Amino acid sequence: MKTKFLKLSLLTLFIFTASCSSDDDNKEIPAVVTTKVSNLDATSTTAFTKFSFSENKVVTGDNWDIAFSSTTILVNGGTKKADAEPVRTGSGAVSIVSGTFASVTTFPLATTFVQDAAASYAIPTGSGNGWYNYSNTIISPIAGKVFVVKTHDGKYAKFEILSYYKDAPATPDATSVGRYYTFNYAYQANSTTTF
Fold first, then answer.
1. CA end-to-end span of the chain, whole Å?
2. Of 79, 52, 86, 61, nearest in space to 155 by CA
3. Which of the chain's ends, N or C, has fewer CB atoms near its CB within 10 Å?
4. Cβ atoms of 175 and 137 closer than 8 Å
C-alpha cells in the first residue's frame, strides 16, 4: 500500500511540475530580419541625415544611431569632430568586421567597439582605409566590410553599404548621382548576442 501511495505521489508531483511552465518559456525570440534602406539622402554638406535602426527611418531627435553626410558616417557615441555634426547623446560605438553580411552572426568582443572622437571617426573616411575605394571619380563600397553598431540606447545592429549612388546602379559612372546610400541592416532588439 505504501509503495502504491509513493508511486502515485511521485507521479502527481511529476505531472504538476511538468505543467507549471511559465509564459516566458513559451515565448519565442523573434527572428532578426534584414532590412534594405534605399536612397538615404546624404547630400547636405551642412547637416547630417540621422538614422534610427529601431525605428527604421530618418529621425530628427537624439534617438539616432548613425548619421550620414557625403562620405562621412557618424555613430551616436563619443565626441564631435566638426561643428556641423550632431551632438552625441547616446552610447553608440562600432566594430568593423571582415566577412559577408550573412556570416556575421555574433557580436564582436566589446573591446573592438570604437566611438567617434575629436581626432578620428569610428567609421574611417578616405579611400582604402575607410568604407570605400575611390577610383576614376567613382566611390565604391569595400566588399566584405560589415559594421556592427552598438546603438544609442545599447542595442545592436549590423549594416553593410551596398551603394553610394541614387537607385544603386550596378556599374556607377560619371553620370550617377552620388550621396544617396543604399544599405542592408539587421537590428537585434533583444538581449541576445547574436543576429
1. 56
2. 52
3. N
4. no
| CB contact at 8 A, 141 and 131 | yes
Residue 156's φ and ψ, nearest 5 degrees, are: -135, 150
**Spatial distance between the Cα atoms of 158 and 162, rounded to a whole number of angstroms:** 13
pLDDT digits (tens, 9 = 90+) for 72-101: 999 999 999 999 999 999 999 999 999 999
Rounded average pLDDT over 29-52: 92
CB 92 within 8 A of CB 115: yes
pLDDT tens digits for range 101-138: 999 999 999 999 999 999 999 999 999 888 999 999 99
Give the residue extent of every domain in the chain: 33-186
Residue carrying C-alpha cell 578616405: 126
The answer to whether the CB of 73 falls within 8 A of the CB of 123 is: yes
Q: Residue 5: phi, psi to the nearest 5?
A: -65, -40
Cell numbers for 11, please give them: 507521479
Global confidence as pTM: 0.84
Q: Residue 90 corresponds to which cell in the numbers above?
A: 547616446
Alpha helices in the chain (DSSP H): 2-19, 23-26
Residue 137 φ then ψ, to 5°: 65, 10
